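Worked example 3 (structure in, sequence out).
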C-alpha cells in the first residue's frame, strides 16, 4: 500500500486530494500544526475524517518536518500548506513568505536527507505570471509576480526546480490557476459572491461589496485539479505543469452568472467599495494548459458557468 502525506490537508484541495488518494487505495496521512486541536472540517464534510491518519507537524520547523517524514516514510508528499490568500498577503507579507517558502524548503531538505525515493508535488500558482494580457501563460512564460503571495510562490517554484536539477529529487510544481468548491471559506471572493447572493435570494437586504470587478481570471473546479496533482507524481519524470481550464472570464461575468442562476439582476445588489481594492492587482490572467493535456492526459471538464451553478445550487 502506498503512503501519502498531505500538508495543508485542512484546506479545500487537501480534503479533495485525500478523498482521491483513499479511492486509489493509499494510506493517507495529513498534517496540521496541532492535529489534536484541528477540526479538519473539509474531511468531515466529505465523510473521510476517520480514514485519514492525522499528525502534528510544523511545516516551518525543519526538525518537525524531518521527524514526520522519517516516521511515515511516505512514497508521495503533497505540499499544500501555507498562507493562501492573495489579499491577505499584502497585510502579512513576512508570514506569507515564511509559510510558503519555508515549508517548501524544509520538505525538500528532509527528502534529500532521508533519501528513499520520495516524490513531491508542490502547489504553485498562476498568480506567479502576473499580467498575461490576451496571451495565455504556459510553462515557459516568465514570472512577473504582483503580490507578496505570488512572490513567495515564485520563489518556491524555483526552489523545487533547483532541488530537482541539483539533487535529482522527484519534485514538481503544479502551477494552479483559480479553482473553487463548496469547501472554500467565504474570505475568497468567489465564495463571498455566491454566499451573499444566496442570502439575497432568500430575502436578505444585504449588498454585495466588492473592489475591482473587471479583473479577468480562469476559474475551475477543485476536485478535478487534485486529479492533476496525483497524475504528476505518477509520471516517469518529474516536471512542472500549468493546471487550468484555458477559459478566462471577468469577475463581473462571474457575478452576473451567479445572480442569474438565482433569478436576480446583479446590478441591483452589488456596490463598489474602494477599501477592498488591492495595492497592486492583475487585470488579466489567462492560462494555456496544453502540456497537462498532452503529457498527463488531464483536461478540465467543468467550466465557469458550471462552477457557478454547482456553488450556487
Amino acid at each position: 500500500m502506498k503512503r501519502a502525506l498531505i500538508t495543508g490537508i485542512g484546506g479545500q484541495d487537501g480534503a479533495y486530494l485525500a478523498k482521491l488518494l483513499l479511492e486509489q487505495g493509499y494510506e493517507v496521512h495529513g498534517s496540521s500544526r496541532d492535529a489534536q486541536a484541528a477540526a479538519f472540517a473539509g474531511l468531515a464534510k466529505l465523510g473521510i475524517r476517520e480514514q485519514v491518519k492525522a499528525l502534528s507537524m510544523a511545516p516551518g520547523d525543519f526538525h518537525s518536518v524531518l521527524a514526520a517524514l522519517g516516521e511515515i516514510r511516505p512514497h508521495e508528499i503533497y505540499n499544500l500548506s501555507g498562507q493562501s490568500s492573495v489579499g491577505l498577503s499584502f497585510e502579512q507579507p513576512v508570514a506569507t513568505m515564511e509559510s510558503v517558502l519555508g515549508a517548501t524548503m524544509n520538505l525538500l531538505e528532509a527528502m534529500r536527507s532521508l533519501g528513499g525515493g520520495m516524490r513531491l508535488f508542490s502547489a504553485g500558482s498562476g498568480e506567479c505570471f502576473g499580467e498575461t494580457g490576451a496571451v495565455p501563460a504556459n510553462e515557459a512564460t516568465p514570472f512577473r509576480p504582483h503580490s507578496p503571495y505570488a512572490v513567495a510562490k515564485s520563489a518556491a517554484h524555483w526552489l523545487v526546480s533547483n532541488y530537482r536539477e541539483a539533487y535529482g529529487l522527484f519534485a514538481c510544481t503544479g502551477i494552479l490557476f483559480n479553482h473553487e468548491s463548496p469547501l472554500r471559506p467565504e474570505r475568497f471572493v468567489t465564495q463571498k459572491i455566491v454566499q451573499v447572493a444566496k442570502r439575497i435570494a432568500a430575502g436578505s437586504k444585504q449588498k454585495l461589496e466588492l473592489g475591482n470587478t473587471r479583473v479577468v481570471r480562469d476559474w475551475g473546479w477543485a476536485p478535478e485539479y487534485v486529479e492533476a496533482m496525483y497524475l504528476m507524481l505518477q509520471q516517469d519524470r518529474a516536471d512542472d505543469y500549468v493546471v487550468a481550464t484555458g477559459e478566462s472570464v471577468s469577475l463581473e461575468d462571474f457575478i452576473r452568472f451567479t445572480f442569474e442562476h438565482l433569478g436576480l439582476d446583479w446590478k441591483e445588489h452589488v456596490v463598489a467599495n474602494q477599501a477592498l481594492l488591492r495595492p497592486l492587482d492583475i487585470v488579466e490572467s489567462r492560462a494555456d494548459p496544453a502540456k497537462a493535456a498532452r503529457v498527463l492526459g488531464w483536461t478540465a471538464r467543468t467550466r465557469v458557468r458550471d462552477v457557478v451553478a454547482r456553488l450556487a445550487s
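Notes: The CA atoms of residues 124 and 175 lie 4 Å apart. The longest helix spans residues 93-114.
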